[in-house]
């Protein structure tokens, strides 16, 4: 099961790098179109770059918020040998929810489905943590 958990972690890492590429392309496109100047990057004052640039930046930042709890839970699960079928399924569910969240955020940016995919991911990570605590304390 450990290798499948590692694959879920790798998938989340790949999502983060994919979002970084999207963000970079949008930023440099805005610079190429003279919406922002290269000097704007010095202070990261990219507000005038447009919503698509701002949204990509926010999504990239999102990849370092709740996913941190996912990575810590996953590594803890590996270290404690607590990565069973349910734990790994929760991990993959989290990654899938993050992919869906990013597709919505970087695409249509429809708030309601984006919120639900975010909430689902949060609940899945919370459940991973509850399982870990239950196993450690044999609850």
UniProtKB/TrEMBL annotation:
Subcellular location: Membrane
Keywords: Membrane, Transmembrane, Transmembrane helix
Chief localisation class: membrane
Transmembrane segments: 6-24, 68-95, 115-138
Keyword Transmembrane included in the entry's annotation: yes
Pfam families: MAPEG (PF01124)
Domain of life: Bacteria
The protein, known as: MAPEG family protein
Source organism (scientific name): Pseudoalteromonas prydzensis
Lineage: Bacteria, Pseudomonadati, Pseudomonadota, Gammaproteobacteria, Alteromonadales
